[in-house]
Every structure is written in C-alpha cells, then in structure tokens.
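Example protein
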Amino acid sequence: MDLEMVMRELEALGKERTKKIYISNGAHEPLYGVATGDMKPMVRKIKINQPLAEQLYATGNYDAMYFAGAIADPKAMTKADFERWMDTAYFYMLSDYVVAVTLAEADIAQEVADQWITSGEELRMSAGWSCYCWLLGNRPDREFSESKMASMLETVRNTIHDSPERTKYAMNNFIYTVGTSYLPLHDKAVEIARAVGPVEVQKDKAKSKFLNASDNIQKAIGKGQLGFKRKHVRC
C-alpha cells in the first residue's frame, strides 16, 4: 500500500464520534477519527515500512501520524528523526502515545528520553517520562540502572507539583510504573507516591482533577499485577 491508498482507507474508517473524542483531547484538523483497533488489519498487512511511515507522519493528519507510529522501524530512526517527529507532535496523544511509544523500541530510547526530560518543554518532558513508562513496562529490570531510577523518582518527588500539566501526568505515571513494573524499587516508589500525594492537574479552566499514584499502585497490588511486563510496546 502506498500513501494515497492508506489515506483513503483511513478516511473510510473514520467515525464522527471518534473524531469528536480526539478533538476534545486536543487533536485538530486534519483528522478522520479512526479507532486504533480498526487500524490493526492494515498494520498487519503493511508490517514495518519506515519510508511510508515518514510520509504518513508528515501529512499532519492525526490518524495518519498515529498509523505512522504503528508501522515505523524504531531501530532505523536516528535521534534527529525522533526530534523531528516531536517537533510536530502538537498534543499529548502524539507525544506520549506515538513518539514515546516508538522511541521505546529504539536502542537510543534512554539517551533521547533523558534529554527530553531535562528540555524544559512540556510535551518533550512528558514524552521523555512516558518513554520510561513504556520501557519499564516491557523490558527486563536488569536493563535499568537502579541508582538512576531512584534518582529519577527523587526528581519526581521534588518537582512534580510545579511541573507543566501534561508532564505531571507522565511523572505520576512514572511513579506508578516503577511501583508496579520495576521490582527493585517497588518499596521506594510506594514511599514516594505517598509523599507526593494527590497531584492536581487542570482539566480545563473551570475544573481540577487529582492524580494519585499511591492509590493506583495499591489497586495493582490487589489485582496481583506486581512485576507486570507487556510482551510488546506497540500493539
């Protein structure tokens, strides 16, 4: 399938209701409103195709950009490629669920994520923390430095309440992911989650929402999910 064929198929799969949901979360035109599950048959047909992924991502169409992440070849992408993708990831569903997910399957994942975390840019920071969540939830514990993960937890403890809104979500999820998927620091993550407490985020100008990693870790423990690892990062 070439670019034109994929775009036609995506347009045919689009639903107005799904489109409205995406827009309510920050997406903007152009987009068709394709449910991610409806993309799977095309993903299975195309498999990995980095040149096509680049063409799709460059369209600026949200559905095409998401599909690009599903067929990209992360190991063929350079740091410059990921930076370019982040430059046009205009809201969190792209930064955290397309770029960060794709990066998590690359050999340079931690190197790039570390730079994004310290960038001072909301969505890059969010993508960096999110990338670690995808990594910790998939790769063996031995691939991570315990001292580095402990230091990152301390950074979250000290900065989460004053961080940008989307970064707060990703940092909160980092505490939760360490607590459930990285066994060497489970106890420390539980301690820090309690110390951090509820994290207030602005859902909109009228309402606040509170995130609570401590409660979510306890729920995961109750469900027997301690040590959980995904078989694959990308579905």
In short: The chain has a mean pLDDT of 96.
